[in-house]
Amino acid sequence: MAARDTSAPALEKLGVVLTDRGSKYAVTGARVTSREEVDAVLAELKTDRAYAKATHNTWAAMLPAGGLKADDGESGAGMVILRMMERERLQDHVIIVTRWYGGKKLGGDRFRRVQDAVRAYLDHRSGKPA
What's the distance, Cα to Cα, between the start and end of the chain in Å? Predict the structure, then answer.
């Protein structure tokens, strides 16, 4: 079996961008063009023990072959990220929203928090102040 390059694209880690009822949300992104690069980004992110131990690392990616998403137990959250990326026409990119559960269920508000985290990342990329 041939060795393959497993180096991950550069991560843009914004860290914790918001909290709600004890849950903390962070957002990270990177430029990617393949599923292999998405996997490498996720592996790189999880080398940080805090991210590896997070309750959810939900993500979506817009690749040349189309959109991909994964909820990581936060049902429906990957689609929220993907739709926001589609609206922004953000191509060749992955956005990961990380949640550390704070002990209280957020119900439908969890989707608003995912949107808030993605918006923080998109604003950061475009240079808008927080």
Answer: 47
